[in-house]
Amino acid sequence: MKTKMPKRKKRSTVFYLNQFIMANTYFIGFEKSVAVNDQLSKGEPK
Questions:
Q1: CB neighbourhood size of 21 (10 A)
Q2: What domain of life (predicted)?
């Protein structure tokens, strides 16, 4: 029991860390795309 608990914790922390990194990369990509769209809309007045 005691040997299984740390493994489960470690696995969950790695999983959450991966989710956190993926969320951060997705958010950064979203921010960059928004910034690019803003630049395009400003650079090309319609």
A1: 10
A2: Bacteria
The Cα–Cα gap between 42 and 22 comes to 30
Summarised one tens digit per residue, pLDDT across range 35-45 is 998 888 887 65
pTM: 0.46
DSSP secondary structure string for all residues of 1-46: -TTHHHHHHHHHHHHHHHHHHHHHHHHHHHHHHHHHHHHHHHHS--
In angstroms, the CA 32 to CA 38 distance is: 10
Whether pLDDT at 12 is above 70: yes
